[in-house]
Specification:
The protein has two domains: 3-60; 90-180, H-NOX domain (Alpha-Beta Complex). It is 54% helix and 16% strand. It has six helices and four strands; from the N terminus they run H-H-H-H-H-E-E-H-E-E. The protein has helices at residues 3-17, 19-29, 44-58, 62-88, 93-110, 141-155; strands spanning 118-125, 128-134, 159-165, 174-180. It has a four-stranded antiparallel sheet, with helices on one face. A hairpin with an 8-residue loop joins strand 3 (159-165) and strand 4 (174-180). The protein starts with a helix and ends in a 6-residue tail after the last strand. Bound molecules: protoporphyrin IX containing FE (HEM). The site of protoporphyrin IX containing FE has 22 residues, from helix 1, helix 4, helix 5 and helix 6.
């Protein structure tokens, strides 16, 4: 994955737990990289090893780390570096989710070697939809939950996410039931 992913994990850890913990996590993961370059590709293993080591060093489950990382990705990483792209993708949570299927094709204009996830929306109703997530990468279901929670916070829209189907349990791909209520008045 592009270095910006590993950089974002570093940012999350350093902001919340300090630079010493980040050094300990890199050492435990056996990752010998001083500075991750956003535009450079790194093996996916580096990212998985960092999450595994963070779980051990911080005494948190990998699930909680991936959820926190998903929220951080939306609320800090994406907002700071790519705010206009986020804004262009929708003015409300449901609008943003309906446009999610084409979102990473715009990201791929900046990151040409991107291997993006694929999303689609079905059963779209007032306040509810099924969001389908396809990826060749295993183990990122909780990252998606965190991303969706982050989007809810970004739009000030209370959101509930329930996992309806899991690839890790034999389904074709992960499916989330996403329910939202009216955005809080600004
Ligand atoms: C401007 C905002 C965003 C940027 C710049 C961005 C960029 C990226 C990049 C660079 C990767 C790594 C993939 C690779 O290197 O091959 C990635 C992965 C991913 N992105 Fe985004 N992304 C953004 C927003 C989002 C949003 C809003 C969602 C969903 C709600 C999302 C879902 C994912 C997922 C699930 C992955 C993990 C890869 C996988 O599942 O295979 N991203 N994204």
């Amino acid at each position: 994955m592009y270095g910006m992913v590993n950089k974002a994990i570093e940012d999350l850890v350093v902001k919340n737990f300090g630079p010493e913990k980040w050094s300990a996590i890199k050492e435990k993961a056996g990752v010998d990289v001083d500075v991750f370059l956003s535009n450079e590709g790194y093996p996916d293993k580096v990212t998985y090893d960092l999450v595994g080591a963070a779980s051990e060093v911080l005494g948190m489950s990998a699930r909680d780390i991936l959820i926190a990382f998903g929220e951080h990705w939306v609320l800090h990483t994406a907002r700071q570096g790519y705010g206009s792209m986020l804004e262009a993708n929708g003015r409300t949570l449901p609008e943003f989710l309906l446009n999610l299927p084409s979102f990473h094709s715009r990201v791929a204009m900046i990151f040409p070697d991107l291997q993006p996830p694929r999303f689609s929306c079905t059963d779209v109703k007032d306040g509810e939809m099924m969001l389908h997530y396809h990826s060749h990468r295993p183990g990122l279901t909780d990252f998606v939950v965190g991303l969706l929670q982050g989007l809810g916070k970004m739009f000030g829209t209370p959101v509930e996410i329930a996992v309806a189907e899991l690839k890790s349990e034999g389904a074709d791909h992960d499916v989330f039931q996403v329910r939202w209520s009216q955005a809080a008045p600004a």
